[in-house]
Amino acid sequence: MPQFQPVQPVRAYERIVEQVEEALARGDLSPGQRLPSERELVTQFAVSRSTVREALRVLESNGVVRSRPGDPKGPEILPYSQSALRKQMVRLARVDELSLSELIGFRMIMDGAAIQLASRLRTDEQLAEMEQTLVAMREAIDVDFDAFSEADVAFHEAVARVSRNSLIQVCNEVVRGVVLGLIADKVSHATNSRALMLESLQHHTEVVEAIRAGDGHAAARIARQNLYDYYATYVPTPDQPHLQALLDD
Amino acid sequence: MPQFQPVQPVRAYERIVEQVEEALARGDLSPGQRLPSERELVTQFAVSRSTVREALRVLESNGVVRSRPGDPKGPEILPYSQSALRKQMVRLARVDELSLSELIGFRMIMDGAAIQLASRLRTDEQLAEMEQTLVAMREAIDVDFDAFSEADVAFHEAVARVSRNSLIQVCNEVVRGVVLGLIADKVSHATNSRALMLESLQHHTEVVEAIRAGDGHAAARIARQNLYDYYATYVPTPDQPHLQALLDD
DNA sequence: GCCCACTAACTGGTCGGACCAGTGGACTAG
DNA sequence: CTAGTCCACTGGTCCGACCAGTTAGTGGGC
């Protein structure tokens, strides 16, 4: 007997979405190009305009296209953006399926890996870039916490670029955004924020030193420890061992 | 002068989506509950059915609800699932600029981290589970490569579960799927596939031994080395240093 | 009394047509 | 050649309709 699979009805708009996404995956469609107008798609797909519109709404919600009223050139194919990925991660985090400790643990892994890679693959120019972001952090301490946080982001982005792995870059950026969105207010209201910033700067300087020396393990270890020290207080006590397991002994 | 922000028109269906998602975030709506029927929503939101449907399509594409034709109870609020997150990650991975070396490098990081966490957080039952998947791998060698690959997946999934970090689980699963999709045929056509499988099993056994001993670093190192040995030949030579940078010296 | 087949009132999926406000390109007047 | 007007066309929304399918309630047969 052949094995039969349960079949659920495939709706017309879904097949439109599939066709567009396939064209995108095959390269027949690339960012910047335009889709035909809705009324034109109606004739091409031989469906009603409602169906075309439902497909476009789904594509739009997935960050694939964008429609603008009155634009004679039609819906635009968007370049890939992390916004949809971030949206899903935020949703995951909001449903409490994703605990803060998981997010921070993931950041420790990603950041540590990026730094380890950076310490082996960096060029001298890139090292200089990283040191430049350290200077910016020091200057930002005297402004306010937001400025410091911004400079901190710039540092981590520079490191992620050097890692030459765009998956790391994206994951880092997304998770950082989610974490910040979850606890930014708590951190910025900390009484001893200046001390925190100074300590963080110190850690970052040590990381760069280790990168300069090419000691990837030390650099990654310091980075993970820094993240742990920075965030551990916001993590429920029973979850803290999950983070400590990522620290070197 | 006040700083003005560019405003873009908010479409009616977007406000419906927002209202539903807010209700969900506030807890006024929980998984398992039902939304009113489309025609009922038409009166509640005071919009047309097309608009309601576009909102429902977006919610459905985001994995928030599911509509079934004929169901008098109306669209169902779904429990959170990672499928939408996975979809976005697959989209990211499919963007052509993502090279095989980046994917494999990411796998080395993820798998290594999962194994390091597992070696510290595992219970005895979980260790037994992992050893069980090793037995399955050994048995699968005598069947065929697909069976072995399946058992291998089971092993890595077991490890990811023990890591207690669902982000790692999802990332691992997604990246593994993408990598396999890219080079599965090449691997399975290798002439010495039996030797490869035996070697892989040997490596996995060593990993489990290190996990049993609680030596997270050794376990992670072996795992990364295993992945490197397994996949490096498929990576263009100029990219190989990017992977070697992830191996311990 | 219970069980089963039937019916009817829904459901979502799709269609076609209509109107509106706005865009942008072409066309015209200067 | 420029500046202004105009109009074809865009997407956003609405309405009404039909269909196939599910489901719950009804009714009849046992």
UniProtKB/TrEMBL annotation, chains A, B:
The keyword Transcription belongs to this UniProt entry's keyword annotation: yes
Gene3D superfamilies in the cross-refs: GntR ligand-binding domain-like, Winged helix-like DNA-binding domain superfamily/Winged helix DNA-binding domain
Domain HTH gntR-type stretches: 10-80
PROSITE patterns: HTH_GNTR (PS50949)
Aminoacyl-tRNA synthetase is among the record's keywords: no
Keywords assigned: DNA-binding, Transcription, Transcription regulation
Entry protein name: FadR/GntR family transcriptional regulator
